[in-house]
Amino acid sequence: MGILDLFLQSSSSISLLGGLVVLLLVYLVSSSSFSSKEDRKEPPGPKPWPLIGNLLQLELKRLYSTLLKLSKKYGSVFTIFLGPKKVVVLAGYKTVKEALVNHAQEFGERDPLPIMKEYEKGHGITWANGDSWKEMRRFALSNLKNFGMGKKASEDKIIEECELLIELLKKLKGEAFATSQPIKQAISNIICSIVYGSRFEYDDPEFTTLVNSIGARLHLLGSPSLQLYNIFSWFFKWTPSRKSFLRFGAASIKQNLQLFSRLKETLNPQMCRCFVDAFLVQKQNLEKSGITKHHFHDENLLITVQNLFSAGTETTATTMIWGLLFMAKFPKIQDQVQEELSREIGIRQVRYEDRKNLPFTSAVIHETQRLANIAPTSLPHKTSQDVVFQGYFIKKGTAVTVLLTSVLHDESEWERPHSFHPAHFLDKDGKFVKRDAFMPFSAGHRACPGESLARMELFIFFTTLLQHFRFTPPPGVSEDELDLTPQLRLALDPLSHKLCAVPLHDKEEGLKI
């Protein structure tokens, strides 16, 4: 979608011509310029237009796809302009690894979208920078581990949730259902038990609203009008999508404040039940010590909890939804997974340690993460200092887009980069092998803090569901008709669809496959 299409969709109260005239006038009186004031060599890129930059050359609804094409022409380090904003794009496994790992400090800052800057105001983990980000990330990592992330305690919670999800799916008796809601709720309950100290019932309206609010905000982030706001925030502040995003956010804050209030009423500093408890106790201890200037305040608690809740729900759930869709799309691969599970595990509950005995199943999960490519551009980075990278000078404060899709689909790293091919993660003897270019959680300072939890969730949910059900297209739909075209919100989701979960066995009978 081009910039003119976005204007036509978004200018309900201001004419396209009037909008362009205003933008041109602002540009003419602006001191910003696309010409470089540096004599040093900067990354190449397509020539930008005044004010609108390269927007006429970009498809904003599939920006990652356009950037991938541009990387073929301009190389693995190049420049584009999103409106007047200069952005350096990094493409390909070797370049991305060099930047995020070898130059982690220089490329380690976040470049918050204007809507996120307005909503979060620099608090939390995901979009924050500086001392507050360092403190919140350090505290979150420490306490997520304390409350079981990556440990047996988390595994037990995941298994318990799997059992409840299985019971829910069994009640459908093989009828077609929309996979999104139950999968998201089940996976969300894992982070809920860590953050809030308890899970929610699937039919709890408070829980449904919390989960749906995340999806609504991600959908808005991908809308044309909010993209225009993020590019020209000084001009498109009026857009309805911005107002809707902030309204959903305010409702989520209100719900969290109510949850915090209940936890405060029963808070026992000697026995923390969850992340919120630990944060509140830390805040109390600092205040008792007479320390008035610190980062453990209510705003950081609210935004950090929302960051953890969102990340702990959307990314893992979206990957799981893709995984089940792939199984229905490729039934022969599903056959192989279920045969391996039957042979190695039987009907007993799968444990995380079983992954070493399930190489094909592990390969399928990894291939799902690779091909699904749910974060094709990762979240935007920013240089923390001037840096010379691969012979190019990049100025401090420059926005950086890390093209993760170019890593996960790198044609020089993957034998069949655009196909579902579990053999990418298997050696000639059928043993599981790690791949360096497998980078779905990003890397460096901004790598996903919940990676270990996500890995455990994906493995246990996927294997347990495949032990109990065969996933097929709805009646009247063939495997070939299942659409793998993604829809872009902040991440790449499958299009809305239904599958059938056909029970495979009863406890008394054993596997029927």
Quick description:
The protein is of the alpha+beta class and 513 residues long.
Number of helical segments with 4 or more residues = 17
Order of the strands making up the biggest sheet: 1-2-8-5-3
First-to-last CA distance:
47 Å
Q: What's the helical proportion of residues?
A: 40-55%
Rg (CA only) = 24 Å
Write down the overall geometry: globular
Uncertain residue ranges? 6-17, 28-38, 507-513
Task: Tell me what you see in this structure.
This protein is of the alpha+beta class. 49% of the residues lie in helices and 10% in strands. It has helices at residues 3-10, 16-29, 63-74, 93-102, 114-120, 130-146, 152-170, 180-195, 205-221, 224-231, 240-265, 275-288, 298-329, 331-344, 359-372, 405-408, 451-468; strands spanning 77-82, 85-91, 109-110, 176-178, 381-382, 387-389, 392-394, 399-403, 469-472, 486-488, 492-494, 498-503, 505-506, 510-511. The strands form 5 sheets. Strands 1-2-8-5-3 form a 5-stranded mixed β-sheet. Strands 4-12-9 form a 3-stranded antiparallel β-sheet. A two-stranded antiparallel sheet has the order 6-7. It is globular.
